Structures are given as C-alpha cells and as structure tokens.
Amino acid sequence: MSTSLFEMEPPARPSKDILGAGTAVLAGFALDAEEELLASLKDVVERSPFRNMVTPGGFRMSVAMSNCGPLGWVTDRTGYRYDQIDPEVNRPWPAMPRAFRELATAAAEEAGFPNFVPDACLINRYEPGARLSLHQDKNERDFTQPIVSVSLGLPATFLFGGLERGDKTQRIQVIHGDVLVWGGSARLCYHGIAPLKEGEYPRLGRVRYNLTFRNVG
Ligand code: SIN
Ligand code: FE2
User: Fold this and answer.
1) What are the residue ranges spanned by the domains of the chain?
2) CA 24 to CA 181: how far, in whole Å?
3) I need a surface site. Which of 65, 113, 128, 169 has the fewest CB within 10 A?
4) Hey, which of 157, 210, 216 would you mutate to test ligand 1's pocket, going by the most ligand atoms within 8 Å of its Cβ?
5) For 26-214, which CATH superfamily applies?
6) Measured from the CA of 191, which atom of ligand 1 is nearest?
7) How many CB atoms lie under 10 A from the CB of residue 158?
8) Is 176 annotated as a binding residue?
9) Which reaction is this enzyme known to catalyze (predicted)?
C-alpha cells in the first residue's frame, strides 16, 4: 500500500459561500488589522474582565466572556439579555474600539450586507476543552442585520447547521484572522464550536478569542 501526502483529506478551509446562501467565510480578512485588534482587545478586557457566566439552567459556561459597545450580552439565572451595564464591575461596557467596528462593517459589506453598524460585540475566550453548544443568535430585534464573527488565536472547528436544531451541521476549520458572516436566510442558523483542541498560539498562548458583532437594535 502506498502512502501519499494527499491521502488524508484536509479539514475544510474557508472560502466564500462554503456554508450556503447568506453566508461568507472570509479567510484571513482580519489579518491586516491584527495589531490594532489585539491591542484593543487587551484594553477592553482590562476594563471588563473575562468571566464565566451562568446559564439560566445553572450551568457555568466553559467559554469565558466579555463585551464592548453600547450593549453587552449577558446570561445569569434569570435568563439571557443585552445590558448596557457590565454586572461584574457595575459600569457601562467599554466603548467599541474603532478597529473592531471598522472591521465588522467592512466584513459585512464584503459579504453583501452594506451599512452594518454593530452596537454589540461579544468577546469569547476559549481554552482547550471549552466549547459552545449549538444555538441560534436570536436575542436581537432586527434579523435583517447579519452576524459577523472574527476568530483569533488557536484554530477551532466551527459547526454550522440549519434552521432546525436537528439539521445536519457542516464543520469548518477557522484560524487566526478568519471572519465568518451570516445573515439573510441564514441569520437564524444553528451554530457552535466543538471542544477546542490543545495548542499554543504564538503571542496569545493556549487560547482562542472570538469577537461576535451584532446589531441588537
Ligand atoms: C458564538 O456563536 O457566539 C461564538 C462562535 C465562535 O466562537 O466562533
Ligand atoms: Fe452564536
């Protein structure tokens, strides 16, 4: 039996439309802004530190979260909501850094959603083993506005399903600098992140960050 370098199928890598109508996978789209993004991220989480929130069902999330922008996504025993105040420090969330906002607007436009102005940016921090189970983003008012999702640090397997929880999911490998956009007929598609694999990303360490931009309305 011969072995060839090409015998093992590589994991799917980003390209446009791979996830279907209303979606765009913009490989490396965030790389030009990398320095500003990382510096801004550091500023934000100095003021609103990462924390592991609790779901309404009482489970502590494995993903640690923070937010910036006028509205921040929070969960606690009373439910999920957007709040102007960071409950951990009892102050408004840090302003959305310009580099964040400009990247989100540019990525949305590239994906065919012009004039996207995010008013919320959820920041997720995954350490090896952390995962995000399949869910829909549906705490926002205006579903004509897309979701823009930026990956930094360690690679992850992004799960992208359909409009029903039980629909087949596609698995796509996302790496540092990749940006995913979904909106239109895909706006309410189920999605999640498979348990993060062990690894070490130069400069950032054993961690993946994700910035999710939304217009909550
Ligand atoms: C999310 O769905 O809120 C985050 C997805 C990700 O971490 O890429
Ligand atoms: Fe989500």
Assistant:
1) 26-214
2) 5
3) 128
4) 210
5) Alpha-ketoglutarate-dependent dioxygenase AlkB-like (2.60.120.590)
6) 2
7) 25
8) no
9) a methylated nucleobase within DNA + 2-oxoglutarate + O2 = a nucleobase within DNA + formaldehyde + succinate + CO2
Closest CA to 129 of 62, 176, 174, 66: 62
Interval 40-59: pLDDT, tens = 999 999 999 999 999 999 99
Q: What percent of the chain has pLDDT over 70?
A: 92
Residues whose beta carbon lies within 6 Å of some atom of ligand 1: 122, 124, 132, 149, 158, 191, 193, 210, 212
* 135 has binding-site annotation: yes
Angle between helices 34-47 and 98-110 (to 10 degrees): 130
Cα 3 to ligand 1 centre (Å)? 37
Backbone angles phi, psi at 47, to 5 degrees: -90, -35
Please give the distance, rounded to the nearest whole angstrom, from the Cα atom of residue 38 to the centre of ligand 1: 18
Q: Is the pTM of this model over 0.90?
A: yes
- Tens-digit pLDDT profile for residues 169-212: 999 999 999 999 999 999 999 999 999 999 999 999 999 999 99
